[in-house]
Amino acid sequence: MTLDLLAVAPHRDDAELTCGGTLLKALDAGKRVGILDLTQGEMGTRGSADLRAAEAEASARLMGLTVRENLGLPDAGIRNDDDTRALLVAMLRRLRPRVVIAPAPRGRHPDHRRTTELVRDACFLSGLAKYAPGNDPAFRPLKLLHAISYREDAVKPTFVVDITAQFARKLEAIACYHSQFAGLTQAGEVYPNGEPLADIITHHAAHYGSLIRVRYGEPYWTEETMAVDDVTSLGVSTF
């Protein structure tokens, strides 16, 4: 299997919250798109691992994902150690994603921060032929992106994806997680302000969209500088 885009998320529902619109947009363009959930969410205050598995499957069907996998790491106990890196490397070599989306470099949940480091290290090690040899040949993704939705850290997005056409379906995918979000005003990195969760998500997406002069957007950050071939084709008016 070869994927165009893979979101690696610490918990079921994280991908939908942070980059669901981008995944849907890639699917709309005919790309092969997947989600790899690292844990089963067994430590969540609400629901259970089995219920969250059913909700994740419902979301995957709604989105039309090419594949959704689960690495089975311990919830609230993700570690960036040799054994865990080897597990993720084996999955990356099997799925062979061109582009990988990881969480923001910072986050309130320890699993989110550790996932960011784990994904970066595994993406590099996956390209070393002698590292953890298995059934699949060495492979290294081209690009690692960090989804920074809902973060207020002092980092400017490298770019924002216009998800206006996909935003309603992003909310539908999030709503599949009834056990986690029904009637609530907070989720993951989405801090509460008293409004329904969907309204807060909408406000954030509208803010990111305004940065590129569209209705709804999702922001991303990369360590490397982005290349531009033709400066006369750049979008987003300065004035």
List keywords for this structure.
239 residues, alpha/beta, Rossmann fold, 7-stranded mixed β-sheet, 7 helices, globular
Please give a structural write-up.
- With 239 residues, this protein is an alpha/beta fold.
- It has one domain: 3-Layer(aba) Sandwich (Rossmann fold).
- The chain is built from seven helices and seven strands, in the order βαβαβαβαββαααβ.
- The chain has a seven-stranded mixed beta sheet with strand order 3-2-1-4-5-7-6, with helices on both faces.
- Helix 1 packs across helix 5 (167-175), helix 2 packs antiparallel against helix 5 (167-175) and helix 3 packs across helix 4.
- The longest helix is centred in the middle third of the chain and has 16 residues, at 110-125.
- It is globular.
- The relative contact order is 0.18.
Give a quick rundown of the structure.
With 239 residues, the chain is of the alpha/beta class. The chain has helices spanning 14-28, 49-63, 82-95, 110-125, 167-175, 178-181, 197-211; strands spanning 5-9, 33-39, 67-73, 99-102, 143-147, 159-162, 217-221. The protein has 7 helices and 7 strands.
Strand content: 15-25%
Query: Helix count, per DSSP?
Result: 7
Distance between the termini: 45 Å
Biggest β-sheet: count, sense, barrel? 7 strands, mixed
Structural class: alpha/beta
* Low-pLDDT sequence parts: none
Write the CATH fold name: Rossmann fold
Overall strand count: 7
CATH superfamily: LmbE-like
Give the total of domains: 1
Q: Strand order, biggest sheet? A: 3-2-1-4-5-7-6
Helix content: 25-40%
Highest-level CATH class: Alpha Beta
Just name the CATH architecture: 3-Layer(aba) Sandwich
Average pLDDT number: 94
What is the 3D form?
A: globular
In sequence order, what are the helices and strands, one letter per element? EHEHEHEHEEHHHE
Q: What integer value in Å does the Rg equal?
A: 17 Å
